[in-house]
Amino acid sequence: MEKHVIFYMMFIPSVILFLGGMVLRLSIYLQGTVKGAEDATAGRKMLVLLGRAWGAFRARPVWYAKVLVQDVIFHRKLLRQSFYRWLAHTLLVFGFVATFAVDMVKGFTTGYLAEWSRSIPAFSFAHAFETGGVRPYLDFFLEFFSFLILVGCVLAMTRRFILRPSQLRTEEEDVVTLLFILFLEVSGFFIEAYRIAHPEVTAARVYMANFTPESANNACSFVGYVLSPFLRNITLNANLLWYLHVVPSLVWFVYIPHSKLLHIFTSSVTVFIDRSGGAAREGAGAAKTSA
User: Fold this and answer.
1) pLDDT tops 80 at residue 215
2) Residue 150 has pLDDT above 90, yes or no
3) Structural domain for 66, as ranges
4) What is the pLDDT of residue 139?
5) Residues whose CB is less than 8 angstroms from the CB of residue 221 and which lie 6 or more positions away in sequence, other chains included
6) Are the CB atoms for 231 and 193 separated by under 8 Å?
């Protein structure tokens, strides 16, 4: 059975479970009171909140864009509190978002558009992503952003397990999450190194994605390239390596709505609520002063 089929047999149920977990979390939040819709159903409360959010954005789009850049993307408040925490947090969050974006582009263009171009000439541009001029950049940035995640994870683990600030409480969930992330990144780099060290893996298309010809852009995957010489005399089951990386990745994906990692999604909303409240208080204070 082809890897694409196997992957989607695992990926689609994982997405369903992830969305189910997110809906469950959202339903819990919507049990609270929404002003003006106290007796409404959860669905109605959601529509009311979305309507108010859209209205607020239309009234001050520039302000919301500013908050998005300063407080959501660059975490200005956290930077003021601790540069170390800010660096670890930013590397992890930004690394995950950027890696996901590059991986989606790479997978869709090389795994689908390149194949469809055989019958649909309009998709022929996808070959630039597969073996052409765009591919080295995809390989480099995928490696670079993954490396940022690894560095962020190491910084976070150092803070929790070595520096151990007095105010920091480390729970079992924190340990599991960090070890999960560490395993995913290390296993990903290991697979990349093994692919570079063993051209036969690429030739046989053992992994799901189409890879560039052997030695074409291997140096762009700089972590795997550095590690590859140590694996040239080691022979492993490449299929097993693929499963050992992909299956835990999907498990981690399903785990997100039920863990502290959920704040990746909720923190943005919290920031906008806090900042809009602060802006309202500032506006009221200015009005009172002018009066």
Assistant:
1) no
2) yes
3) 3-22+61-273
4) 86
5) 139, 140, 142, 143, 192, 196
6) yes
